[in-house]
Each structure stands twice: as C-alpha cells, then as structure tokens.
Amino acid sequence: MNKSTTRLIAAIAKCFMLFMGLVSVVSCTSKPPQTEAYLFAYFIGNGPGEEAIRYAVSTDGYNYRALNNNQPILDSKKISTSGGVRDPHILRGADGKTFYMVATDLYVPEQGWNNYAMILMKSTDLINWETSVINIPETYPDEFANVDRVWAPQTIYDEATGKYMVYFSMKDKGAHPDIIYYAYANKDFTGLEAAPEQLYYPPVKSHTKACIDGDIIPFNGKYYLFHKAEDGDPGIKLAISDKLTEGYQLVSDKRVDCQTVPVEGSGIFKLNNSDDYILMYDMYTSGRYQFTKSSDLRNFSVIDQEVSMNFHPRHGTVMPITMEELKRVIDKWGTMDDPLVDVTSPELKKLDVDFNNEARTVYLPVKNGVDLTVFDPQFKCIPGFSVKPEGPQDFTKGAVDYTITLDGKSDVVYKVTASNDHNPALDGFYADPQVLYSNKTGKYYIYPTSDGFTGWSGYYFKVFSSDNLVDWKDEGKILDMKAGDVAWADGSAWAPTIVEKKVGDDYKYYYYFSGNYVAGGGKQIGVAVADDPTGPFVAEKEPMIKESPEGWGQQIDPCAFIDPVSGKSYIYWGNGYLAAAELNDDMVSVKSKSIKVLTPKGGTNDDYGFREGVYVIYRDGTYYFMWSVDDTGSPNYHVAYGTAKSPMGPIKVAKNPIVILQDAANGIYGTGHHSVVQVPGKDEWYIVYHRINAKHLHDGPGYHREVCIDKLEFNEDGTIKQVMPTVKGIDPVN
Description:
With 734 residues, the chain is mainly beta. 8% of the residues lie in helices and 41% in strands. It has a five-stranded mixed sheet with strand order 20-3-2-1-21. Strands 23-24-28-27-26 form a five-stranded mixed sheet, with no helix packed on it. Strand 23 and strand 24 (361-365) form a beta hairpin. The N and C termini lie far apart (105 Å).
C-alpha cells in the first residue's frame, strides 16, 4: 500500500470518526420535547417521615398541587443509608427522555446536620428510579476522610464533555467552611468518575464563610451560579462564568433574593413559552417558600400573590414536563382526596376561594357586580381530571352540584356556592388600612401596609380609591423605599396614616408612616407631603419621630388627627405605649414640649390592653381613642376603645371596650389595626380593618392579612356597639 492510499484511508477514517462523533452528540442532545407543565420535587421538613421526596404538578408554573396526598413517591429507607432524603434536584437528560435526580442522604432526627453521602437516581418514566449512594469519606478517603457534611447536590449536562456534572457543598471537621465542589458522574450515573474538585472560589474576604446550595443555569452563553453565601448579608448571591467548571466571579455581595430574612435552597427554572425565569427559594426560618420572577437573571420581583400551593415545601426544584409526562404521574399518584382542579374566572376574588375537600364543598367569592344567574367559575382541570357541568350556571338558587371525575378511578360530587361578598374590600394581601374621605375629590381612599412579605418586611406603600367604599381602584405605589423615595429608610414600610388639610385655597395631604432607619435606631416615623390624595408624595429627608418618650418600644403606627373643635393637629403613635404630641403648623414636625404618654390605665387586660394601632375620632363632644390588642399574628388580635374630653386625654377605658373581635365560627380572625371614616354630612360611620382568613391562619400573619370594611354604630349613650365582622361586607355608600 503506497503512502497516498494510506493517507486517503486515514482521512476517510478521520471523517468517519468525526461523523460518528457528530451523530453521538446529536443523539445525546436531541431536540427538546414540547413542555407544557411542571413537576416540583421537594421534601417537607426535619421530622420523622418528612425527609422524603414528594411530587407536585402545575400547568402554569405558578399554581402547584401535591400528588399522592403530599405523601412520598419514594421510600427514603430503601434509597438512602440514613433513612432520610432531602434537597431533591431533578433534571431532564440531554436525550430528552431520561431523568436524573440527586439528593442529600441525611436523617436529621438522628444525625443532626452532619452527613456523609448523597444519592444518585436515574429514570425513564419519572416513576421508577434506579438509585445509588455515594459516601464521600468512604469512596475518597485520601482526599475527604474528614468530611462530615455533604449537602444539596445538583446535576447539569456538560455539552463540552457529553457528561453529567454533579455539584454540591462539603465541609470537613473544622479545616474549612462549606465549599461547593463538582465531579462528573460515570456513564451509568451510579457513581463519580473521580474525586470532587472545588467549583467556586468566593472572594478572599469570604473564605471563612459557608457557601452552599449551588444552582447553575446556562444563560446568554454564560453559566449563572446562584448560591447561598453567609458572607456580608447572608442570602442568595450570583456568580457568573464563561465556563461550567471554573472561573465564577461574584457579581455583587448584595442578595439577589427579595428578602431580609434567612433563605436557602434556590431553584431557578424557565417558564414554558416565555422569556421569563422563576427563582424560588426556601425561607427556612419562616416556614414558607417565595417565588420571584426575572427576565435578566439579575433583577427579581416577588410574585407571591400569583403563586399557590396546597403543601409547604422545603428545598426542591421545578422541571418543565410534557403533557404526556404529566398524565403519567397523575395516573400513578392522582387521588380524589384532593382532586387537581382549580377555578380560573377573572371575576373571582381568587385568594379567598375555598376548596373544602373533606366537606366536598367549594366557596366562590365573586367581585362586585357579577351576575350570579349566569356565572361560569371556569373550572380548569389538570389532565386526568374532568368537571361537569360546564359553562354558566345559576348560583342564586343555592349550591350547584359539580361532579369531578378522575379517569379510570372514580368521581365525586362537590356542592359549589358563589356569593357577591364585599369583604375583603381590596384584592390582595394588605394590612393596617387607613381610610380618608377627600373633600377635594369627593372620593374615599385607603392607604394600607403592603402585605405579602414574611416578617412584615414590606418596602412600599400603595393607595386605592373608591366612590362608594365598595369598588376600589388600585392607584399604584406612592412611596418605594427600595427605589430611594425615602432617603432615611430602607424597609419596614408599615402602618401609614394620612390627613387632608386646607392650606390657602387648596388642600395638602400629609402622610405619616413607619420605616426602618438606615442610620440605626430601629423603627421610626416620617412624613411625606402631596397636593393630591394619590400623590406624588415627597418624603422629608429625616424621620420626624426618632425616640420613645417611655425610653423603650418601637416608634410605629402613627395616627394623625385634626381636631374639629380647636383646629389643632395631633399625632399619636406607639407599640406597647401610647404617645401623643401636637404638630407644628408645618405638619412635618412636632412641638417637643407637648409630647405626652397617654397609655390607657384600668380595666381588664384581655379586653383592652394597649398594644398598637391607635386611631382617634371626634363625635358629639367626645374623643374616641381606639387601639389594637394582642399580637397581630394572634387570632385574638382585636380593637378596644376608651374616651376622653380632650385630644390629649386622659383616656377612660370603656366599660365594654371591645370594638371588633374575631368570629371563629365564620373563619374570621385577627380583626385589628383599623381606621374609621364618616360619611360627609351624616352620622354614618364605617370601620376599615384587616383580618386573617381561616384558610391563611396558619400560613403566617405577616403576609396573609386582608382589608375589610363593616359598619360602625353607636348606642344612644354614645358608647360603641361591638362590630360583628362579616364576609358580606357593606353595601355601596352614596
């Protein structure tokens, strides 16, 4: 054979090998399937039976329902060495049809927070899993004999090598904090090819701090590594690299999550048919999850009010799936104890829809003006379930029977009622409502605390307007502390109050609020001023009230009051104490010598004990001081009152001091932190307060409060009649 022939054969062989390599790559990275739903793999807690993998499903990425009655889909004792399985991460393989899941092998009740292994799993149907355990100290004694923490593994496909990279955090017995490592899995996904190597090197100043819960996603030709870092302000941080296995640089020491409380276990995924991504994380000290959304993976906004789950997950991941895959897991784990059915009509007050699976009832609160003779709840079923009847129904004659069917299993009848109730008055989670009637516009306004933030950590204020106290229009934000609208505060945007004052021929609006003072000193009270009830409001550069006259307690919950008798203006505030002061003519400063403590004395503690949320009105020669009792998270949170002959007291506690109290029989709790409005020219009064709906009672009081309105009435002797909180609410006010 001559040299030319040899070179020709070699060239052909090289081309053949190149072709086969391309075929191999194409076969491994085939066209991704069309995903139209989502699978959420998670665990639920640290107790016996809670450290196990569970599934939930969604068709929109926002609303999730647990499968298998929120019970495990795998037996932790069979797949782990410890008996506990945590932090599941699920991934669709490059071939589009194989699935990989990794998890922490840890049983906290016996091991505490020290463990040695992780679990590798592989499946072709999401139901049957081949599993292996990798004990790091035993497998790599030369490199990692002292490791006593192996946490939160995740997997990603490396297109450059055609392999699956597993990355996770490890810590040894004192030599260094938790560090994120990586290693490639073997071909069968039953072990690692070699000893793990460090993946991410935090900035030098952070080397003494733990770094855990790595979460990588490719984006715009780079790799984005979200991770929990304990340096600086602990939280979810972002590092970016051009390469999968090296070169990650921290973008900022600022958190990318939207919280001030501890978080961990980030999970990021792309929404189907969208350019938006969801970053979710485990708020492990708060007992809840938070969802945020972004299109650039750097700036995220909270979308909690768009999200619902009928379970309480801990550190997990969401993976887009096909409708066929969704049907498969429902066929396996769907049950009639909790049918996967939702109602989607835009005419509903969605937050208060109540599915009672035990009683087989559904309560549908509709918005004002909806015609209940031809109302269609628009039931939406996850594949495998169906609902009859369809279309508009007449709900004015009582409950309508709906039959829910699970294919091939059974059906059940639910009695569905729909009601045009006016409470809650605002759509969404809000608290501490302050109501104003504006003489300038002839409209009513509500200025609430924006709820939906764990730990009462809201940072902006909104305003709503109405002509009749029933139909409310969202007028948008008026102050945003994160946007720099309040120079002295960075959060804790709490409990505002507002007054309208005639200045010359026009009106001014003075808006007082609580905030977290960036210069130290905790919660303090500031003021912003506007020419119209909806703003724009301009905040003073420094807080107005910085100190407690008692020397303790928070400076929160202001109430502004213009005395119709003297024309003087006052401000009241306090938490655990009640303070009062006269305002100067500028309305943005107090007469320091007028500051006085008015905390009510006498009476029965359970009935009236002053906590916070004071509100003052004047009627027929009497000044009524009302305030909230107990803790805002308590079902017993309620309003009490006393009277005085002067805006500066002293206050005499009423003989029967309760203004409004919970109604447990109707699922209404925590009725407090209120304000009161009088219909102009009439002795007609309404109390505006927040409540906790029974369905949210145990979900966290700092982010599930709702604003309600009921009528406030007086007895002939001037005492206040106790208000019965209602679901129906009030009729429109002319």
